[in-house]
């Protein structure tokens, strides 16, 4: 089968492991370039389903910023083995191994991106996103930039007829992460003011819609007016261009000096610092990403005085993805696919994301199914 391999394979989390700011800049910073030549379109063996496993014919693989990190992998964290990247996968069950009972060949499915052990203290207490041995497609096992993939039966989620395979491929990491941030971590409630940073990112377009679904007032921020205009179409009532304006001052202005109850942040660095300042009393900032670097400063004294909280968030639990899929199926949320690329042009697809051109998700489709039906 055809697949894209990362020949000098990157560990997706390599940038989280760097403690030194200067080393982060040197190894990860955008100025280092993308090393797109690390992605190669190859012919590799097609997987075969063993007991408890399912082979899925891939019809869409959603890209995430994770895939940019993988290509930009810090030289100090490169591994020698090749890996097929891509955490978000949707397709049709092609074959099932011995003992598989919950799906059959021909079923339309989306895969939960993570592969928790389901046997550690975290998994056993319903926190499979915090599994002590957490793996994921595209990182610890081959992912979606291929014609077929091999999945544990546990990861397979049936799709409603109303959700296309390309739309489904755009959901897992971004929507599940945003759901976990807003619902599990921040406890979003009707009437809350929610600031969503990087509104055109995968996490941002999902968070904007989920916050609206729960009855919040949504303020979004992004680096261009064009992205902010699209963000209004998704439900943002106020928008802030952080390339031209102070995020803090604008957040205070649009909330009448009150501040926001929740910030959904994936940028970190100086924009996160301003976001913490923009929290109302009792507010919660939830961060899931370090697009601008691994560090941010906070004024601890003001956090204390306002009883504000800064929370981390990683991925989500399988049940949260099931709820996302159900909401998209019934029209409560919608997939926002900016562009599709054929698998043979995976390098162009990753570059498109790295250069901040997208509003929403970029989905890669095997050439045999390209262009996809919409
Ligand atoms: N913890 C988790 O489980 C988890 C899950 C998903 C994602 N993440 C992390 O969350 C972040 C967002 O992920 P995503 O897949 O939603 O991202 P994405 O779709 O690639 O979007 C990233 C956004 O960041 C903004 N940005 C600002 N400065 C940038 C720069 N120098 N380079 C690139 N982008 C810049 C861009 O918006 P403007 O052009 O408007 O500035 C862009 O839309 C990433 O850091 C990712 O690793 C973490
Ligand atoms: Zn576990």
Can you offer a commentary on this structure?
This protein is α/β, with parallel strands linked by helices. It folds into two domains: 2-112 and 135-170 and 335-369, Medium-chain alcohol dehydrogenases, catalytic domain (Quinone Oxidoreductase, Chain A, domain 1, Alpha-Beta Complex), CATH 3.90.180; 175-312, Medium-chain alcohol dehydrogenases, catalytic domain (Quinone Oxidoreductase, Chain A, domain 1, Alpha-Beta Complex). Helices cover 28% and strands 24% of the residues. It is built from twelve helices and 17 strands. The chain has helices spanning 21-27, 65-71, 121-124, 165-169, 172-185, 202-213, 225-233, 247-254, 269-277, 300-306, 318-330, 346-354, and strands at 2-6, 39-43, 53-62, 88-96, 108-111, 114-115, 135-136, 148-152, 156-158, 193-196, 217-222, 238-241, 260-265, 279-287, 309-312, 337-342, 361-365. The strands form four sheets. Strands 3, 4, 5, 8, 9, 16 and 17 form a seven-stranded mixed beta sheet that branches. Strands 12-11-10-13-14-15 form a six-stranded parallel beta sheet, sandwiched between helices. Strands 1-2 form a two-stranded antiparallel ribbon. Helix 2 (65-71) crosses helix 12 (346-354) and helix 5 (172-185) packs across helix 11 (318-330). The longest helix has 14 residues, at 172-185. The protein is globular, with a radius of gyration of 20 Å. The mean pLDDT is 93. The structure holds NADP nicotinamide-adenine-dinucleotide phosphate and zinc ion. NADP nicotinamide-adenine-dinucleotide phosphate binds next to helix 2, helix 5 and helix 6. Zinc ion (ZN) is lined by residues 116-120, 122-123, 131-133.
């Amino acid at each position: 089968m055809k697949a894209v391999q990362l020949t000098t394979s990157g560990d997706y989390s390599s940038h989280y492991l760097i403690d030194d700011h200067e080393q982060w800049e040197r190894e990860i910073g955008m100025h280092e370039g993308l090393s797109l030549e690390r992605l190669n379109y190859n012919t590799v063996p097609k997987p075969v389903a063993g007991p408890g496993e399912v082979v899925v014919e891939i019809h869409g693989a959603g890209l995430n910023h994770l895939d940019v990190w993988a290509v930009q992998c810090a030289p100090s964290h490169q591994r020698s083995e090749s890996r097929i990247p891509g955490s978000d996968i949707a397709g049709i069950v092609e074959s099932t191994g011995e003992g598989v009972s919950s799906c059959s060949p021909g079923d339309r499915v989306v895969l939960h991106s993570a592969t928790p052990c389901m046997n550690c203290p975290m998994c056993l207490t319903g926190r499979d996103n915090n599994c002590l041995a957490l793996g994921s497609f595209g990182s610890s096992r081959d992912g979606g930039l291929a014609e077929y993939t091999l999945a544990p039966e546990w990861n397979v989620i049936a799709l409603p007829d109303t959700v296309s395979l390309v739309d489904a491929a755009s959901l897992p990491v971004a929507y599940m992460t945003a759901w976990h941030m807003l619902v599990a971590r921040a406890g979003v409630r009707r009437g809350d003011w929610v600031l969503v940073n990087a509104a055109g990112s995968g996490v941002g377009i999902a968070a904007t819609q989920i916050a609206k679904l729960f009855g919040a007032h949504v303020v979004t921020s992004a680096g261009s007016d064009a992205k902010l205009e699209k963000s209004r179409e998704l439900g943002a009532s106020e928008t802030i261009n952080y390339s031209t304006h102070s995020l803090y001052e604008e957040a205070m202005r649009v909330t009448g000096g009150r501040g926001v109850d929740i910030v959904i942040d994936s940028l970190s660095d100086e924009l996160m610092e301003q976001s913490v300042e923009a929290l109302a009393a009792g507010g919660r900032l939830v961060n899931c990403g370090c697009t601008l670097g691994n560090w941010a400063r906070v004024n601890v004294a003001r956090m204390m005085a306002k009883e504000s909280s800064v929370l981390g968030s990683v991925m989500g639990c399988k049940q949260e993805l099931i709820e996302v899929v159900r909401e998209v199926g019934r029209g409560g949320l919608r997939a926002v696919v900016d562009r599709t690329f054929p698998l043979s042009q995976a390098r162009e697809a990753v570059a498109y994301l790295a250069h901040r051109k997208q509003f929403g998700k970029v989905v890669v489709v095997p050439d045999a199914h390209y262009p996809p039906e919409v």
